[in-house]
Amino acid sequence: MDIADIEALIESNIEDAEATVSRPRSVDENHEDAHFAALVISPAFEGKSLVQQHQLVYDALGDHMTTDIHAMELKTYTPEEYAALDE
C-alpha cells in the first residue's frame, strides 16, 4: 500500500479531512513498506476525544490496518486546533 492510497482512504472516509501521510522510520527489512505516520485535519474531530479521533482514522483505513499497515503514528486535529499550532 502506498502513501497516496492511504491519504485517499482517509480523505474519502472522514468528512472534509486533509491527510498527509509519510514514512517516519528508516527502512526496516521486514516491514519497510508497512510503517506510516499520518497528520489528519478534519472538523469531524470536533468534540471527540483523542481515542475517538484515532478510531475514526482506523475505521477509514478498514482492513488495511490488519493486512497492509503494520504501524500508524497519528496526529489528529480539528482545523482550529491545527491553526492554533502556528500562533
Describe the structure in your own words.
The protein is an alpha+beta fold and 87 residues long. It has one domain (3-85): 2-Layer Sandwich (GMP Synthetase, Chain A, domain 3), CATH 3.30.300.90. It is 39% helix and 22% strand. It contains four helices and three strands; from the N terminus they run αββααβα. The protein has helices at residues 3-13, 50-61, 64-67, 79-85; strands spanning 18-22, 35-41, 71-77. A three-stranded mixed β-sheet has the order 1-2-3. It is globular, with a radius of gyration of 13 Å. The model has no long low-confidence stretch (mean pLDDT 90). This is BolA family transcriptional regulator.
Keywords:
BolA; 3-stranded mixed sheet; BolA family transcriptional regulator; alpha+beta; GMP Synthetase, Chain A, domain 3; BolA-like_sf; BolA/IbaG_stress_morph_reg
CATH level 1 class label: Alpha Beta
Distance between the termini: 35 Å
Count of individual domains: 1
Order of strands in the sheet with the most strands? 1-2-3
**Assigned CATH architecture:** 2-Layer Sandwich
- Strand coverage percent: 15-25%
User: Percentage of helical residues?
Assistant: 25-40%
| Quaternary organisation | single chain
Biggest pleated sheet: 3 strands, mixed
Q: What Rg, in angstroms, do the CA atoms define?
A: 13 Å
The structure class reads alpha+beta
Mean pLDDT: 90
CATH superfamily: BolA-like
Alpha plus pi helix count: 4
